[in-house]
Automatic annotation (TrEMBL):
GO molecular-function terms, A-Z: phosphotransferase activity, for other substituted phosphate groups
Similarity comment: family membership: Belongs to the bacterial sugar transferase family.
One Pfam family here: Bac_transf
Protein name: Putative colanic acid biosysnthesis UDP-glucose lipid carrier transferase
InterPro entries reported for this sequence: Bact_transf, EPS_sugar_tfrase, NAD(P)-bd_dom_sf, Undecaprenyl-P_gluc_Ptfrase
Keyword set includes ATP-binding: no
Bacterial sugar transferase domain span: 271-460
First and last residue of the signal peptide: none
Source organism: Chitinophaga rupis
Amino acid sequence: MKWNTDVSYYIRLLIDYVVLTLFFLCTRRYIAGQGDVFFSSFNWLLLGISLMAWTIIGISVHLYDDFRTRPFSIELVAILKTVLIHACLLTFLFFYFFKYYPYPRTFTLLYNLLVFSGIAIVKYIVKKSLLRLQIMGYNTKNVLIVGTGDMGMNFYKTILDNEHFGYRCVGFVDEQTNTHLNGQFLGTLPDLKRILEEHDIDDVVVAMPGGLNEQLHQIIVMSEQEAKRVRIIADCYNYCTTTASMHLCGNLPLLTIRSSPLDDPARQRLKRFLDVTISILLFISMFSWLFPIIALLIKLTSKGPVLYKQERWGLKNRKITCYKFRSMVRDCDMVDASGRFLQATPNDKRITPIGKFLRKSSLDELPQFINVLRGDMTLVGPRPHAIPLHMESKQTIQRYMLRHLVKPGITGWAQVNGCRGETRLPGQMQKRVDLDLWYIENYSCWLDCQIILQTCMNIIKGDKQAY
């Protein structure tokens, strides 16, 4: 049994309307204006505006897209965006357009808090319910796979292992007869028109290598004549990631095998704005008096400069000068006899007494806010490494250089997940790189806020890897 996509869309929208109406009435009952009538025309007007605003915002932020093949966390972010914009819009409309608005400001706040929690819970229940129904055979799409090679069989295995995608394989078609598919081989390419007529098929998935592209035109024409949607698996699927994207350059489709939200110039500008704003506020409120105190302590306890400058690699593998408070004795060895970078270790004799405190509390990193203001670094991003360690990792760690698609950061996703300090054991650097790449591919302003908050918590409670 299949449900029409439009019907599913309107059912989800209707469920949201019910939740919005219910919590509007609950909030109205809890916070009542003086002399207010429960079912007054004014209340119905406010509710109507709320529903209309929710619909427009939800569609704009893709809240009602098909989330079957994506984790619930992505849908939750869309819900949060919708609620925040909904709250801001209602606040603006209610307090600037209604002169005699009868409710206190807490009405809008409480209403949207209830809406966020209610919508999130309902959508989670709906998602789990749909998954259970799909496993039982409801609301599935029937697909015909054209191609029985590695590409076709990998796609078949993928939809078998992920029942929540909602796909059911009707059978296979290929150039040559394949008798090893347990009766699922329906015929060869010349039989395609007959197969499409005889079977209930929604999508035709073409999974053939590039060398057989001469048949592709014929497959598309026959499928579209039978009103079937054609989907083509790119021949370079082995190299694609979960963030692969495609756009048109004229009439030519360009496939990007690895993309990031930070490829968007608007997000780059927002991130830069937040970097500069937070850095300036910290300089005004804290650093103006904290920097001189730390500088004085360094001067009183060891010889040498206050700041330690080290050349590192930044965005697009360009060299930057990274600033830190000096935490080691002057002119100490940074590489061993074989030229291998000497990473800091517990009870490292090169670290000064005040340097030990600075490193433990991460205060030695504070001058890097200068790098942030200069534009060399950002608050949150992959940590830059010393050049000897960088050159070594570049040759031995998979996808290491992809970290340099974005600016390096003072703190990062790897650091708040325990990947800081030494990387001498096998796999330590690879895990750090994998976490950095996850951050790059899943960046959001909310994720940056979470990382900053986690960093502050780690500093307060102490990090055993900080030495």
